[in-house]
Amino acid sequence: MKYSPALSCDGSAAIARLEALAPLGRADLALLEQASQVPRSVPANREIVVEGEPVTQPSIILSGWACRVRHFADGRRQVLSLLLPGDLIGMCRQQRPVAATAILSATKVTMCAVPEPASRSPLAQAFAISAALEEAYFLRQIARLGRLSAYERLIDWLLETQERLMFAGLADAQRLPMPLTQEMIADVLGLTSVHVNRTLRALRLDGLVEQRSGVVMLKDRARLASLVEYRAPRVSG
Amino acid sequence: MKYSPALSCDGSAAIARLEALAPLGRADLALLEQASQVPRSVPANREIVVEGEPVTQPSIILSGWACRVRHFADGRRQVLSLLLPGDLIGMCRQQRPVAATAILSATKVTMCAVPEPASRSPLAQAFAISAALEEAYFLRQIARLGRLSAYERLIDWLLETQERLMFAGLADAQRLPMPLTQEMIADVLGLTSVHVNRTLRALRLDGLVEQRSGVVMLKDRARLASLVEYRAPRVSG
DNA sequence: CGCGTTCTTGACTGCTTTCAAAGATGGTGG
DNA sequence: CCACCATCTTTGAAAGCAGTCAAGAACGCG
Questions:
Q1: In chain A, whose CA is at the least distance from the CA of B153?
Q2: N or C: which terminus of chain B carries fewer CB neighbours within 10 A?
């Protein structure tokens, strides 16, 4: 597979992710193809969902990066989770009229409606696994913010993000696209942008990562993983 | 309602919480009463669930406090969330054979099996709301660890915990039981026990809280809430 | 090419941790 | 009923990681 640092604009990456979660049949793929024919595009840095407002239609991210954020009155901001191609927005297991968090587009984002899967279909299963993974990423984010140093947080987050992008075929074992500003990375990791900058430099000097033009290279995945005891989240056997 | 700092041992608090989430009918109450007739007791400081092991039967906490924890090889530990009376353990929306996190009893805990609710029954709805609340608490924990100071974290967490206990009738507007050691509180808030101790003292000196014999008094809820912009999580209109 | 945003770096501050030790508390058995 | 022990709480002093403030450099976009 050829590695493409550019963010794809059709729905192929999103569909690839869902297919990686559960092998989809012809019917499910057709549903997804059809839904992705009617994409909605949002510029970077827009509030796609406002916290506390009624949730509208659930959506699939087709391309681009978004994030759940929580704002504080004094300007502080915390990114709760990232939303990458193939991730779902606004899926509620029950009638919950109001959005629990704001959702912000970090880059230009395209998305489409979530098709209704047949019950017990592979697609329905993929959605369920996606929800379970989201929860696993929440838990990892809590542990990261609570107990890891800045240096460790950055490593742990890079590994997690790379793994998530690989599901969608948007990263390979060594490289991942990084369209976020250091300011945004800081809001993900509970740090300041200045300290993110310094920590990235430290990682560079330690020969662990390289950066150029929106792409991060992980130069020694094994060493990085051992530094943070990285374990891939498991959702099934 | 008379306030009782003691941890109740029957299932009444747990049932009260679920009833607060959705008004239960006679049949649902009977199911819960019946299930709570067969309690299982676990001493304090026991791993109820081991991370990575197959999940067994889902359970309801009847009494006592437990927590989801993540351990690191070097001894660091992060409490991901608290599990209080009426909370559910091991409810999976899909077949997920392995536990995503370890669960540890912080006090003596009694629990029982989760009865199977009729579909669309109030009890089924209460379970769904409980799951949505759990997610809301995860998000709040992320924001707390990422962007609040130690002083703010403690306030925010006390308010959240008080509110959760009030659902079960285990706290009133001013007081909540606090059976956790400062060490454990530190692992919840991503701090050291020494700093938790100092921060509690600061709160005492500022006249915001009082402590004695396992009970915390919140002396000025309005001021505490304004210090952290506390908003109760909403799950429905 | 010019302008705004983002990145980078330095100097300094300060919140939180670390290390250490004394004091309080509570449960248990004699 | 009290002594004893383990655990937990409390406090001080010093170190360190991350934040703040500030300003110049690089980058990308129109």
A1: A146
A2: N
